[in-house]
Amino acid sequence: MRIDLHAHSNASDGTDSPAGLVAAAVGAGLDVVALTDHDTVAGHTEAADAVHALPPGTRLTLVPGAELSCVVDGISMHLLAYLFDPAEPAFAAERELVRTDRFRRGRAVVERCRALGADISWEQVRRIAGAGSVGRPHIASALVEAGVVASVSDAFTADWLANGGRADVRKHETDPVTAVRLVREAGGVPVFAHPGAVKRGRTVSDRVIADLAAAGLAALEVDHIDHDEPTREHLRGLAAELGLLTTGSSDYHGARKTVRLGEFTTDPAVYEALVDQATGAKPIGG
Ligand code: AMP
Ligand code: FE
Ligand code: FE
Ligand code: ZN
Questions:
Q1: Is-contact 269 18, C-beta < 8 A?
Q2: What is the pLDDT averaged over residues 8-26?
Q3: What is the pLDDT of residue 286?
Q4: How far is ligand 1, taken at its centre, from the CA of residue 286, in Å?
Q5: Residue to substitute in 13, 107, 172, 203 for testing ligand 1 pocket (most ligand atoms within 8 angstroms of CB)
Q6: Interhelix angle for 136-145 vs 122-129, to 10°?
């Protein structure tokens, strides 16, 4: 069983369509893939339709999910949510709030970039994002198009889009204890995404992770491209102490990042345990 529980489509900042992601998951030999776009479930229907349309003999299970943007003590962090009821109003309203504020913030980031001499426009960013939940990676792609930086990851520096960088503007993000409760109340299973991804900026303390565990967090995403081995060791120890499960996943973004789908995976027994905790939705297909 090859299980990848974190992947993005062009419903947020990935480059594959939801159906394209399903095809890519089959191509990568995955048995299970989770669709976890930032603050949106807009890709779920297309991905589910693509799973149902797979030829007989091709087996893939789709785990519908999302990745919620959170902030605590000024530190941004991401909470993965699996198998929640997408119609549950309180969690749906919170996703909507974050998505809406992404537009205000996106415009403001573009203005900052222009003031810093980058010849990009909001129209260009909207074209790149399409129907997707708009974020810094789309603006990074605009900076690449304009020849300002060589790659998307080169745009995430203090000069441009990194947290606290010259062109960074905050968006509305949810308090993570509230977010964990919202996910559970919607029947979902909350997992802390890349808790030790120091290259993205400051990371939260073990104390905060303990608070999240007490609030109902299910797992830490440990095997992730942005974690070095000592970080993984530490997170595994912390998870054991706090009674949390540990997952592994690629955080695939299509062509916007170099990581391959299925490059990191989750243990089948952990996957089963996560699914058993969910009451909001069921895995699709398989
Ligand atoms: P946003 O959600 O608009 O605040 O943008 C955050 C997204 O930017 C993350 O989900 C990643 O896809 C991407 N990102 C953050 N830090 C980096 C980095 N250092 N290199 C490449 N992409 C990054
Ligand atoms: Fe992303
Ligand atoms: Fe993330
Ligand atoms: Zn992600």
A1: no
A2: 98
A3: 78
A4: 31
A5: 13
A6: 110
Give the pLDDT of residue 69: 98
154 and 137 in contact (C-beta within 8 Å)? no
Q: What percentage of the chain has pLDDT greater than the value 70?
A: 100
Q: Say if residue 177's pLDDT is above 90.
A: yes
DSSP assignment string, 203-225: ---HHHHHHHHHHT--EEEEE-T
Q: What share of the chain is helix, strand, coil (3-state, %, to 5)?
A: 40, 15, 40
- Ligand 1: nearest atom to the Cα of 199: 19
Q: Distance between CA 160 and CA 186 in Å, rounded?
A: 37
User: CA 160, 137, 235 angle in degrees (round to 5)?
Assistant: 95
Q: What is the pLDDT of residue 271?
A: 98
**Among protein residues, the one whose CA lies closest to atom 22 of ligand 1:** 153
Which residues face 248 on adjacent strands?
A: 223
Q: Pick the ligand that lies closest to the CA of residue 7.
A: 4
pLDDT of residue 168: 98
Q: Which residues have their alpha-adjacent CB atom under 5 A from ion ligand 2?
A: 13
Closest CA to ligand 1's atom 21: 153
Which protein residues touch ligand 1 with a CB less than 6 Å away? Answer: 13, 38, 69, 135-137, 152-153, 156, 199-200, 253
Q: What is the pLDDT of residues 21-57, one digit of tens each?
A: 999 999 999 999 999 999 999 999 999 999 999 999 9
Q: Give the global pTM.
A: 0.98
Atom of ligand 1 nearest to the CA of 76: 4
B/e letters for 245-255, b = 16+ CB within 10 Å, e = fewer, are bbbbbbbbbbe
pLDDT the model gives residue 1: 96
